[in-house]
Amino acid sequence: MPVNNQGPVSGINDRGQSSIGSKSGGFIPVRVIDVSLVPEEDGRSTYQLTDGFWGIGAIKFEAINKGSLKRKFPQGSIAYPLDANYRKMPLINEIVFVILGPSRKRLLDGNSDAVEFYYTSAVNIWNGVHLNALPSPNTLPSSTNNSSNPNVDRGIENNEDGPQPEPSYGQLFTENPAIRNLYPQEGDIIFEGRFGNSLRFTSTNTQPSSSKSIQSPWSTTGKNGTPLTILRNGQVDAGIRNNDWFPIYENIQQDDSSIYLTSGQTIPVALASTNFNSYGIDAVSAVDTTKPLQETPVSNTTVSPKEADSTGSVFDTVNVEPTLNTGSNG
Q1: Does any domain span residue 280?
Q2: What is the pLDDT of residues 236-254, one digit of tens each?
Q3: 78 in Cβ contact with 110 (< 8 Å)
C-alpha cells in the first residue's frame, strides 16, 4: 500500500476527525504519545475525548518527525485498535501504523463521510518482545533547553523548563533489560508478552551434531515433529551477556511457573523434595518385580510357600502347589 508520511496527520483535529476524507489511503507510521487506560475527569484527556470506557485502548499519536514535549494531556490525533478481538496495547513512544476507516458516526450521526483512525500493533523497531520504543529527539536527555533552527522547522519544540526529560513509556511501565526473546524452533508458533510470559506451540527438534549448542532442552530424545505445548509465566534471570540480544529457552527449573503438555518428551524436572508422606506415597521410583519372579527358579518343589518364606530367601514361589508326597519327607 502507498505510504503518506505527513499529509493525513496534519489534517486531523484532537478528536480524530479528518478534514481530508478517506483519500489518503495506506498505512501511516506514527508515534504513540498517550494511551487511554485510566479514567480521567479532565475534558482534555484521551479518556474523555474517546467517550470514556467505550474508548479504552485508544491512543493519541503524532507524526514521527514531530518532537512534542512530554505533557499531562498531549495534543495529538486519536486512533482506535484495528482489531477488537486481539489487542496489543502499545507503549508511549512506540511506533504504530494508522489507517483511516469508517466511523460509527456514520450510523449515529448520519454522517456518511465520517472516518476514524485505527492503529496496528507496535512496529518491531528493536526486535524485542519487551519494548520497541523510538522516542522523539525532544525526549532524549540533553544539557540544553534550546532546539536548533532546523529542529524547530521540523516541529521539535524548545523546552523552557530546563533540560529535556527522560523518555517515558507509560504511567506504570518499567523497562527491564533482562527480558529476552525466546529461541524459536522450526515451525514454532510463539506468543510472547512483555514480562517474560509466553505460550509456545512447538515440537521435538533434535539438532544435528554441528548444532548441538542450540539444542532445545526437550529435544534430547524422541521423534522430530512430536508436539509439545509450553505455557510459561515469569522468565529466568539469564544475567547480562555481552550480546544482550541472545535468545533463551524456557527453563522448567528456574522459570517462575509453567505448564508443559508433552507427547513423550523427556523434561528434566528436579523435585524440590521427595518427602510425600502426607500423601501416603513414596517418591522413589517403583521397581518392577514381575520379571525377577518369573525368571527365578524354584529350588525345592517339595517346600510349601510358607516354609520357603521363612528361609530368608529373596524370592517367593507363586501359584505353585506343594507336591503331595507320602514318602519319608512327608
Answers
A1: no
A2: 886 666 566 789 999 999 9
A3: no
Per-residue model confidence as pLDDT tens digits over 61-88: 999 988 767 788 898 999 999 999 998 9
Domain span including residue 300: 285-330
Same domain, 251 and 305: no
State pTM to two decimals: 0.69
User: Are 199 and 191 in contact, with CB atoms under 8 Å apart?
Assistant: yes
Examine the domain organization and report whether 221 and 327 are in the same domain.
no
Q: Which three cell numbers stand for residue 172?
A: 506504570
Query: pLDDT value at position 189?
Result: 97
- 163 domain-assigned: no
Task: Please check the confidence at residue 276 and state whether its pLDDT lies above 80.
Answer: no
Q: Name the domain count of the chain.
A: 3
Give the H/E segment covering residue 97.
strand 95-102
Nearest CA among 281, 169, 185, 180 for reference residue 232: 180
Residues paired with residue 102 on neighbouring β-strands, in sequence order = 115
Burial of 74 (0-12, 13-18, 19+ CB in 10 A): middle
